[in-house]
Amino acid sequence: MTKEELRARYKRERADLGANRKKEWDTALTRRIAGSDYFRRAKKVFLYAPKKEEINLLPLVKLAWKHGKTVAFPRCDTEAETISFFELAPGERLVSGAFGIYEPPESAKLCEADESTLCLVPGLTFDRAGNRLGYGKGYYDRYLSTFPGVSAGVVYDDFLSEALPSEAWDKPVDLLFTDKNAIGVSRPVEETTKLQLLLLRTKDLAARVWEFAKKEATEPFGERSFRPMHSPPVLVFAAFVLLLLVGAVDTFLLNRTWEMILLIPFQLLVFGAPLGFYLLLGGKNSFSKKNLRLARVRTSHLWFLACVLVVMISGSLLSSIVTGGISSLDGSFTLYSTFVAKMSGNFFSILYVLFAFAIVPAACEELFFRGVICPFYEKFGVGIAVFVSGLFFAMVHFSLPLFLTYFFLGALLAFTLYATGSLYATFALHFLYNLFCLFGQPYLSDFYVNAGNNAVFIFLVTVIFLLFCALGVGEARKIYHRYAKEGKPSVFREPMPLRDYPRALVKVLFTPGTLFCLLLWIVVCLVNL
User: Fold this and answer.
1) pTM here?
2) Distance (Å) of CA 504 to CA 132, 286, 470, 496, 501
3) CATH topology of domain 3-191
4) pLDDT digits (tens, 9 = 90+) for 489-526
């Protein structure tokens, strides 16, 4: 029988089980687990909140608390398709969560498993090799693939199967508890090689990505909510298109004076129009003061911001040297590979260039990328938000040689946003960096040209970069230490386990909108080469 046929069969049999018999078997199973050495030795017990027909092991909660054990229940992340276990403290109650399954409250602490953890795994049926037949979502298989403790399947003895169909990525449990026995599982002698397992998991991941992309592409627009899967790429794609149209208009302007006059309205159009359209479609919550993090900059953050500014300047110089050579540092400041900063020398010309090339780009880009794009991805982890924000920020400049530089700057600005909790801080850094590019870069170019020794110049910049990286990291540690002493609550989700980042990154990148952005960026960069 196929897995689908087996699921239908065991769901039917479980539904037909009488209430009295179910209660009797549940009680016997609970006693079997409570009397086992595995339960007695465990310092942490991972349980589950049963659905109506599932085996009810909740009486173990009070027993575990009585013996000083940590009790945890799973919480589902339906976007990342993962589960994480959160501690249920004595006196706390479970609350309704994803799929109508009860889970720990929002205040619950993340509970990391170790070798002393016993995880009781539900399932429709198990076989004697420990293979499990669940509901087909794969949440427990993904979690158990890196679980360091003892995993135990719970199943009625009458529901045991002789042999279940299994795939290479299915994760069997270490032992089985039934209402009659505790069974050590037997493994097949022939094991799948690591290469075969990697290929099978890659194939499964590719199939999931393809199915997800088809679902996103075919879902009716009117039924969509602006989820993190597609909203940011749509906004970025709109900005790309508008920026290319503006560049096309610029090529037809015979009078360069008009280019300078129209530069500020052009930038407001490129970044303001997509955000305005999104606002009209119901995204007003994204523009709240709290969501945008319009908090004042603390004086205690000023040294950290100074360190980050030096890292931005020295790091961008080094990445430019790596990708374009030392000669790449010589030249005028160019915005979006289209507009070149030119000053006639009078006060009003300098003032206008200051606004057009330093203040307005910093304000527009920070509102767009750090104010609106970053919050979309925070539910996947702050690391994902920093990476994707930096990626889109680098792509919008349409420069293949400077991609690494812009990605570095975008990711660093996003990191600063989360360290300081202030969009004003990132705007100030962005503005000061643009100011350096406008007025400091020419003097730096003269310095290394006149110095006549590129190796000395590169060495000095590298030393400054590493020194201020160390100082900035140390200052960031102090900032978070102060947050902890103040009891400042985190506005983000619990830290994502490192093993979940690749899946989350694939999920947010492999969407039609993101792929369209990437394709457009590649085409434009190749044309500009």
Assistant:
1) 0.56
2) 25, 22, 29, 10, 5
3) Rossmann fold (3.40.50)
4) 554 444 566 667 777 788 788 878 888 888 988 888 88
- Phi and psi at 74, nearest 5°, equal -80, 150
* Nearest in space to 337 (alpha carbons), one of 243, 234, 434: 243
List Cα–Cα distances, 65 to 57, 68, 89, 292, 433, in angstroms: 14, 5, 9, 42, 55
- Measured distance CA(414)–CA(393) in Å, rounded: 10
* Chain segment 26-36, per-residue pLDDT in tens: 999 999 999 88
pLDDT at 392: 92
Place of tokens 């499990």: 132
For residue 497, the number of C-alpha atoms closer than 13 Å in the C-beta half-sphere is 18
> Residue 408: is its pLDDT beyond 70?
yes
- Kindly give the interhelix angle for 194-218 and 512-528, rounded to the nearest 10 degrees: 100
Residues 225, 134: Cα–Cα separation, whole Å: 30
Q: In the numeric block, which tokens belong to residue 282?
A: 């119901």
Q: Cβ atoms within 10 A of the Cβ of 260, count?
A: 21
Highest mean pLDDT: which range of 65-74, 76-85, 175-184: 65-74
Distant-in-sequence, close-in-space partners of 482: CB < 8 Å, separation ≥ 6? 300
**E strand or H helix that includes residue 182:** strand 182-184
**In which residue are the tokens 């290469």 written?**
195
Domain boundaries, the chain: 3-191, 193-224, 228-287+313-528
User: What pLDDT, on a 0 to 100 scale, did the predictor assign at position 470?
Assistant: 95
- Token readout for 172 is 């069997």
